[in-house]
Amino acid sequence: MKYLSLAAALLMPFAASATPNPSDWEAVLQEAEGQTVYWNAWGGSTTTNDFIAWVGERVSEDHGVTLEHVKLTDTADAVTRVLSEKQAGEDTDGAIDLIWINGANFAAMKEAGLLFGPFAEDLPNWAYVDTEGKTVQTDFTVPVEAYESPWAMAQVVFMYDTADIAAPFGSMTGILEWSKANPGRFTYPQPPDFLGTTFLKQALVDLVEDPSVLSQPVEDATYEDVTAPLWAFLEELTPTLWREGRAYPQTGPAQLQLIADGEVDMAISFSPGEATAAIANYQLPDTVRTFVLDKGTIGNASFVAIPYNSGSAAGAMVVANFLMSPEAQLRAQDPEVLGYGTVLAMDKLPEADRAAFEALDLGIATLSPAELGKVQDEPHPSWMTRIAEDWAARYGTAQ
Amino acid sequence: MSDGLVLENVRITDGGATLIEVDCTVAPGEVLTIMGPSGVGKSTLLSFVTGTLDRVFRATGRVLLDGEDITGRPPHLRQVGILYQDDILFPHMSVGQNLAFGMAPGGNRADRRARIAQALSEIGLKGFEGRDPATLSGGQAARVQLLRVLLSEPKALLLDEAFSRLDTSRRAQIRELVFDMARARDLPVLMVTHDEDDARAAGGPVILLGE
Amino acid sequence: MLRHVPLLTLVVMLGPVVAGLWGTVLPAFGHLPGAGLTGPSLVAMRDLLDWPGLRQAVGLSVVPGLQATVLSLAIVVLVTAGWSGTRAFGVLQRLLAPILSVPHAAAAFGLAFLIAPSGWISRLFSPWLTGWGRPPDLLVLQDPAGLAMTLGLVAKEVPFLLLMTLAALGQVRQEQRLKTARTLGYDRVTGWLKTVFPAVYRQIRLPVYVVLAYSMSVVDVAMILGPTRPPSLSVQIVKWMGDPDLSLRLTAAAGAMLQLGLVVFALLLWRAGEALVARLGSRWIETGQRHFLDRQMRRAGIGLGTLAAGVVMLAMAGLLVWSFAGFWSFPAVLPDSFGLRSWTRHGPGTITALGETFLVAGLATVIALALVLGCLEAEQRTGRTITTRGLWLLYLPLLVPQTAFLPGLQILLLQAGADVGRLPVVFAHLVFVLPYVFLSLGDPWRAWDQRNAVVAATLGASPGRIFWRVRMPMLLRPILTAFAVGMAVSVGQYLPTLLIGGGRVATLTTEAVALASGGDRRAIGVYGIMQTLAALLPFALAIIVPTLVWRNRRGLHV
């Protein structure tokens, strides 16, 4: 007995410094207690910031994990940070423990071996996740392989002010026709902003005849042909945009202010509940509603990933697991809070949780899951990179 | 070795040019007056004696006080007191605190306070301990300054145009007070002035400069 | 110990600048071993030259920078020439400290709301005068010429230059010069320009250079008010620094070198301009001309001066209203309703950020003040006063663009394995806090009547006793003012906090600029107001504390 405890004491330091094993959840919980998790997440949306603060309170109560929200203006900042740390040889206690991530940034980090894992599918709450109906195991066509865990579903919707626009539009061409008739009343965030490139992708998906080519990586030979309808569309649209396309809002939420000021009448959003939440916060007039296109709109999941050099990987997994809990998912879906789509499968949930989801009033400007219709797949990330570059060359600098 | 203040072959130069040259002795209780128009380096000479000469000047010679060479000592260890024309009472201290600041250390608090109270009443400023120096008249301030210097128990006293700011009626009165008290303590006094009345009243030897 | 303080101060102040420049030069020539890139090569330079936005980005550095400097200087000169000594000037002078302490970012947010087509000014005249039921589609903010950015810079640089000018006026004995000129029959402004300006300009030359270098390389103001297609060079450098594609760091470093080159070029250009103005000026003096548009220049002076001050105050009022606003649509001049919702939502967050802000600012300022007092005391005891060259060294951290050395400093710190976080940020802030504390305290410190020290010494007080018991208490007011200046400088720092803090140090300024990208005016209002209060509070204390402590000491009242 004596010897055993001595051995344990000798082993302790090694055990503590070893990579936490997500399949031994009890050990993870123990190690997480007292850790501080620096979550690098975009800080431009006040509702998201409030939600993250709430998550911090909850994980602190339940598991003694301190959550610090590092507010980013751009997720790429966090990726850069981890890269520079790797170059500097900081392999054990990097500045970042958890990143809100998806798409190109995830692809880059996974490829460069900058991520901790696989862990996501070992988290206890993974059992509730809707792996069939939602794109939680691929991220922009890149296999996730449990290197990031999902916590919110996003789908493109368009917010429009019914005071100015009588009926929603069914296609990108419809938007173009309206914008031509009402110049200066529409804009989109400036790429490479995430939502700005999403608008370009949405336009591409809606305009190409056969979107299936987009699930394959870009090929130089066909790139021009495939994207030709997009550039033709933009050539026509740009002169009719707000400020004639000479200036753009820098982020998605900046569009809300433009609608509230009456500068534009319509804006793209990647969150079906954003409009309702913004109305509650006086950021949008209560005449705003949302719509999706006839052929459907792009959707994807938001994930969190853990850098390979996080000193608090256990704590980060506790946060990631909590984010997938019915409690957190319900709160995130509440339009008064975030209005994010859930990643959980209703039929996998316990009865009480399912009822709570059903009881949720989604709010005046939020479409029901049925109205949201078909979710279009994200194009392969190489399309986004290429299109964003091309956009910058064509429209990124004043002529 | 003689008592008193001795300036031995003192010569102050400014970039090679000689500014002032003095070789003199001030006996205890005696007032030596150095007279001359402004700009001849009278004040510079005094700053050499107090040890606060500006770096732009070069000085040779020695300063002896009661037989000791104090030329190389830092200012606060020289025991040479000085009075300026403007009242340099520390504005953040009361009159009493100013005096206590100057008084040589030693004695308990009550004792020091009693000495200050008595010294103040001797010069006709009884009960002034708590006063803000900024509220004193010119003559009162001059007397407090004198008292502060004397309480620091210097071995010599320097007067840098000390009376030139006072109006004529006060002036003679304060001058008498300073000389009397210096004599009573047997202090050598070195006075620089451009005023002949000051020199006459001092009654001691006079060195004329810049003629 | 004391003897080494000046050297230590120089190292603390210039070390990071030199190290940062070194850290920039290597990657600019393609050398970044950490990323598997070894130089020297011209890859980075070529990438920079291939960037399609380069020409415009360079223009957006040089043109608004020069514009803002010329305009700020002109306004300061006109208002001082025409109005110094008058009651109107006194009012402006009193507004100076609060306006100066408004952080650049907060002023820029407020200004954006003021001048936007949907902004306050437009609302005031709509629809009754303009007929606008909706905001007009005008490119007022983010305009390609950078006019909004220039305006934002001018509004903040005028108070800075005015403060520097006021300090200079005392030293050049303006009254005597002006009186002489007036008795010779010169009109007020002409007389001032011919007799006072040359001497004043010599005194404020370095601050003018600081304004030029700052305006050319500013990041936060340019992000809020400047154009985006492309942005100015410094903003683009920061974007490249943040890109996950590591090779863009080389481009960023090359851009940083270019930014440095541009500032050096502009400074040389400015010097040439100085020589030209001096020659034209002396020719003008020789003509003996007594008046030249004096009345117009006086009017322009007070008009522009009031405008510059008014814009900042209105901008702050706008932030205040937004922070309490319910729904507020165009063209309503005031919100439909007022409420505390924004404050209850963001208040707790601002308090946390305020704590971090004060911690960083307090540490940086205390260290700066200790070093500066040490320097000044050492200067005093050795009798060696600061030379012109020394003054240049003091201004150097303010002349080297932040975007030229902070990226390199970040790379170096990471390579050295230094932990990111608060302490490196404190030292990065120190680079900028030190010069301002030194400049703020230097003059009052040297103006102190030296005979106090002589008298104290002859009374037997040691140098230490003189320092603590005589000099410090007597200079309490300027010392606290210098402290407040240091705090305000630190509170306003954006780039050093962002780059050196690695995102972990969240001050009111970094939070506010991050929020600005989201455009939520209510949140920005709350953070902007808190940011301004954080900078103002130390100034208020600097006024109140000495007044309380010395309430019975008339000799220390101002």
TrEMBL record, chain A:
<dbReference type="InterPro" id="IPR006059">
    <property type="entry name" value="SBP"/>
</dbReference>
<dbReference type="Pfam" id="PF13416">
    <property type="entry name" value="SBP_bac_8"/>
</dbReference>
<keyword id="KW-0732">Signal</keyword>
<protein>
    <submittedName>
        <fullName>ABC transporter substrate-binding protein</fullName>
    </submittedName>
</protein>
<dbReference type="InterPro" id="IPR027020">
    <property type="entry name" value="YnjB"/>
</dbReference>
<feature type="signal peptide">
    <location>
        <begin position="1"/>
        <end position="18"/>
    </location>
</feature>
Automatic annotation (TrEMBL), chain B:
<keyword id="KW-0547">Nucleotide-binding</keyword>
<keyword id="KW-0067">ATP-binding</keyword>
<feature type="domain" description="ABC transporter">
    <location>
        <begin position="1"/>
        <end position="211"/>
    </location>
</feature>
<dbReference type="GO" id="GO:0005524">
    <property type="term" value="F:ATP binding"/>
</dbReference>
<keyword id="KW-0813">Transport</keyword>
<protein>
    <submittedName>
        <fullName>ABC transporter ATP-binding protein</fullName>
    </submittedName>
</protein>
<dbReference type="InterPro" id="IPR050093">
    <property type="entry name" value="ABC_SmlMolc_Importer"/>
</dbReference>
<dbReference type="Pfam" id="PF00005">
    <property type="entry name" value="ABC_tran"/>
</dbReference>
<dbReference type="InterPro" id="IPR003439">
    <property type="entry name" value="ABC_transporter-like_ATP-bd"/>
</dbReference>
<dbReference type="GO" id="GO:0016887">
    <property type="term" value="F:ATP hydrolysis activity"/>
</dbReference>
<dbReference type="InterPro" id="IPR003593">
    <property type="entry name" value="AAA+_ATPase"/>
</dbReference>
<dbReference type="InterPro" id="IPR027417">
    <property type="entry name" value="P-loop_NTPase"/>
</dbReference>
<dbReference type="InterPro" id="IPR017871">
    <property type="entry name" value="ABC_transporter-like_CS"/>
</dbReference>
